[in-house]
Amino acid sequence: MDRITKNSEQEQEIPFMINSMIPYADDVDNVDVYYEESLRNTQGTRRKSLSLRRNVDLTLTIAISDTESLGDAPISPKTALVARNDIDETPSLPLPHNLRRNSISMPSGLNALADLENLRLKHQMNTQATVMEEEKTNSTPTNSVIDDTPGTLTISIPDPNVIATHCHKIEDSDENDDFEFSGRRKKGNLFRTKRRASIAPLPALRLNDKEMLASDFDTYSLASNQASITSVNSVASLLREKMQAFPQMIRKKKRETKDYKIKIFVIMMFFITVFLISYAYVGYHRHVLTYSYFEKIKFNSKDRFIKILSHENKVVMSGQLGVTINMDSHPFHCLEDRRKQDGSVCIEWNGVARLYMNFKDMDVFRCYTIHWQALSANQFPIDCYELTRDNGLWFGGGISKNMEWSLSTKDFDFSPYASGDAKVHQFGNGVKRYFINSIGVAIQVNEKSPLHLMVNTTANEFCLKAQNDDFTFVNRLTPLPELQYKICTTEDMRSLHMLMTQQSLWDGLKEADIKMLHTLIEEPVWQIPHQNQWDSINETTVYNYSEDVIAMGFMRLGHILVSEFWQENIGDFTVDVSRFPTLKETIDVLHRRGFKIVFTIQPFISTDSENFKNAVRKKLLIYERHSERSIPALTRYKSVSSAGVLDITNNASIPWLKEKLEKLKEEYKVDSFYLDLGTSYNLPHYYQCRQTLDNPDMYARLFTESLESVGFLGVSTASRAPKPPAFLSTLPINSSWSGIREIMTTVLNYGIIGYPFILPGAIGGDYALAKSKTKMISFYSLPQPTLPDQELFVRWMQLITFMPAMQFSHLPSEYKSDYITDVAKELINVRKAIVIPLLKKYLTESMNEGLPLVRPLWMLDPHDPACLSISDEFSVGEELIVAPILEESVEEREVYLPQGVWKDGIDGSLRKGNRWIHSYKVPKDKIAYFIKLPDNTRF
Predict the structure, then answer these.
(1) Which chain regions cross the lipid bilayer (predicted)?
(2) How far apart are alpha carbons 189 and 196 in whole angstroms?
(3) Separation of CA 772 from chain center
(4) 854-855 and 434-437 beta bridge pairing
(5) Residue 927 near residue 904, CB atoms below 8 Å
(6) Ramachandran region, residue 889 (left: φ > 0; alpha: ψ -120 to 50; beta: rest)
(7) Residues near 116 by Cβ (< 8 Å), separated by ≥ 6?
(8) Do residues 862 and 892 lie in contact, with contact meaning Cβ atoms separated by under 8 Å?
(9) Contact assessment for residue 703 and residue 603, using Cβ atoms and an 8 Å cutoff
(10) Strand pairing category for 596-601 and 672-675
(11) Which of 102, 620, 728, 905: disulfide with 929, CB 3.0–4.6 Å?
């Protein structure tokens, strides 16, 4: 053993290499120098191994037979070789390259695991003192283990049949490891790192009486060596632990698999919970059980709440459909035979009503169709929408009683939507089933629906109802009431209005019609004044009036409008020769002076007229319902106390009337006609036409369309924009300050619903009443008012100067005042220089798209909140803003200018837009107007 110890201090060998940088023990004396060289030659070829350079086989197994005693006698290589051959005849293999230092190999001489187990248990009974004593007596420990039992000695040499595992990285990043990946040597043991105490030390090999490899380990390694009796014992222990741990590993894998499934389940439950919470939140704010049947629409079929969303997913309209349906009634999908083939969604409440909803998408322009069908006689479909400020202001529907600017500020119960006298009935003479909201949503109701409207400012509701009655919607077009309309949305109300009212007015237009349209804009309309007596108008009156117009000298000659009293009886369609004996010559003179003659005609035929008998005989009149067609239905209108009405749906009526009008034009050279059609309420109460009318307002439309070839200047009633050059006239206006405000509101409202050309009535008013009548007065022939107050006349004329057309009854010269004359001259010059060019410029736009010539301010800037509520300002096109004075004895007002730079029409100063001008001074002879300058104008 002394020799073994001595030789081990001279020559040593490492059992495996790390990155080919561990030195051979017999070749390197100075290890530090070797490492420096190895770092410089890491890419070079590896040197020959010790076994090759010594030409010997170092893979040996040495064993002692049971009868031999080890003692202190040295073991020669020859003896070791003989012993190895006795144990195993398998040829030996060289020591594997890069064998891990702590790797444990199965010895070739292992016969039974039981002997190894006994050896390990016997060794564990040794005390630590014995281990320390052996450490003192043996300066260099070996891998040989001497047991107390004689003849049991095993020297552990790696099995040549077991291939060692290459170490590619340093485990556990131990601070006491001898080497790092960089190849730099760390301070400490050269051949061994400090490992756990359970790992056995390296074996010592002896060959040719020299120790070739010795374990150089510390105290921990010694303890580990004593704890692991032999390499065989260590392997046996390792195998047993692995075998014992195998079931546990299987259970662990199962447990890991089970844990993996649990984690997945928990994650899924988490996402489901988040989804449910989010859904509940959305449902709370958008009404529970609300479904999106189409894009940008939310509808709850049970409670029938509906919300229309804009392109930015903002609510622009909300309300409730089918208000009268019981909340306990549950809907279901319609049967197959009740569904439409156009993709509509069909929902039905059994025995109550059926609802169809459809959707049409045109990029940013979207329309949703709502169609209700009542299924019982006492069921009337009603849909109500909110009128809150957050949902914008509603406009449209024409004018109504009290002449409010916005529909949102009105308050009235359900009323039939039909033309009438706004002083008596709910709606005025110009109607159109079109309503628009300031935030970009519009409603258009089908004309076949028996429409009733209600606005309740207390409940903030705007409601539509379908209901038949005994007059307005007496003609039941369907067995039960049906309500059909469409809701359209787009980016803003201006572009929406252009899309909804878009209609070409050029179709069938002749060059003469275009010329007439320009003359109505450029030249005034002169209405011959009349009194209560039908004979107050005669040939002398017409002639003298034309002379007065010419005498003023500063106004262009235009159209002389003669009322219906040019005939002896209403409906004669012939000139009363007793009052107009030389009318042909008079008209010829007026033509040479530059005037144009316009006669007023009506569809009413007085019972005193010879034409009444002729029309009854030919069955040309509207007849009584549920009676023979030979019995005419009578009505009253203006000065006529009893009159029949031409049945415009009778194919024989139009030729009969056209023949008389053409003869009149040919004989008297009449230029055009003005159609005084009355309103729907002027029809006989129990009217019945040969062809069923959708509603009473269809009568005026058919009458106008049938006489387009005759040529007319204007109409008194309309439910659709008449073909140019016809203008829609306003209702007769009372000569008062309230009347001038009505003119302002009427023109703007008619422009919104699609009537671009408005004839705003006579300056100063059409009649004079001390107080409003509560009963129907439209059948009276109201007299022309006496000369209005001077201030009222001036303010009225200032307003009309900027309207599409000017109409006079009283002349400025009647005041015999230079002040009135000077004001009139200045206003006429403003109209010629500024207004008329702008009206002609925007004429094409109005003809193409139905946009009005006179517009509310929100059409200039629909996103400006201030423009929505302003009802006492307007614009001509997009380049002129007018702020008239509409109150008595007022000479200042608040003026709002939209964005841009504006030139003051009074003093010529520049005004910055998008702001209010407070206490703006407006003298009595001036009107505030502002001209927009180019966008690149520097302020």
Answers:
(1) 262-282
(2) 15
(3) 47
(4) unpaired
(5) no
(6) left
(7) 110, 230, 232, 233, 235, 236
(8) no
(9) yes
(10) parallel
(11) 905
DSSP state of 329: P
**CB environment 714-747: b (16+ within 10 A), e (fewer):** bbbbbbbbbbbbbbbbbbbbbbbbebbbbbbbbb
The single-letter code of the amino acid at 748 is L
What is the CA angle 459-752-756, rounded to 5?
160
Give me the DSSP letters along 23-91: PPTTT-S-HHHHHHHHHHTTTSPPPPPHHHHHT-------B--TT---TT----HHHHHHHHHHH--SP
Tokens encoding 485: 């309309």
| pLDDT tens per residue, range 518-538 | 999 999 999 998 766 667 789
Counting DSSP H helices and E strands in the chain, the numbers are 21, 40
DSSP secondary-structure letter at 163?
P
State the Cα–Cα distance between residues 565 and 689, nearest whole angstrom: 28
Report how far residue 419's alpha carbon sits from residue 426's, in angstroms, rounded to the nearest whole number.
9
How far apart, in whole angstroms, are the C-alpha atoms of residue 521 and residue 726?
A: 12
**pTM assigned to the model:** 0.69
Of the two residues 150 and 446, the one the predictor is more confident about is 446
Length of the chain: 939
Peptide bond into 725 cis (omega under 30): yes
| Domain spans, the chain | 264-293, 297-501
Residues paired with 729 in a beta bridge: 759
Residue 562 tokens, joined: 């003669």
Structure tokens at 722: 């008449």
Tens-place pLDDT, residues 14-28: 333 333 344 433 444
- Kindly state the tokens that stand for 589: 């003179």
593: enclosing H helix or E strand: helix 583-593
3-state secondary structure of 831: helix
Residue 370: pLDDT over 50? yes
**C-alpha–C-alpha distance, residues 65 and 63, integer Å:** 7
Q: Residue 498 has what DSSP assignment? A: H
Placement of tokens 């229309």 in the chain = 308
Please work out, in degrees rounded to the nearest 5, the angle formed at the alpha carbon of residue 884 by the alpha carbons of 882 and 890.
150
Q: Are 752 and 395 in contact (CB under 8 A)?
A: yes
- Check if CATH label 3.30.1380 holds for domain 297-501: no
Q: Which CA distances in Å does 351 have to 89, 384, 709, 824, 930?
A: 105, 22, 50, 67, 61
Helix axes 539-552, 583-593, angle to 10 degrees: 10
Largest CA-CA distance found in the chain, in angstroms, rounded: 171
The one-character DSSP state at 835 is I
**C-alpha distances in Å from residue 645, one per residue of 275, 536, 572:** 68, 25, 13
* Measured distance CA(129)–CA(118) in Å, rounded: 22
The tens digit of pLDDT for each residue in 489-523 reads 887 777 888 788 767 777 778 888 899 999 999 99
- Return phi, psi of residue 765, to 5°: 105, 160
CA angle 368, 371, 372 (to 5 degrees): 145
Strand partners, 310: none
* The Cα angle at residue 845 between residues 840 and 851, in degrees rounded to 5: 110
Phi, psi values for residue 767, rounded to 5°:
-155, 175
Query: Which two tokens mark 148?
Result: 């107390």
- As beta bridge partners, residue 415 has 453
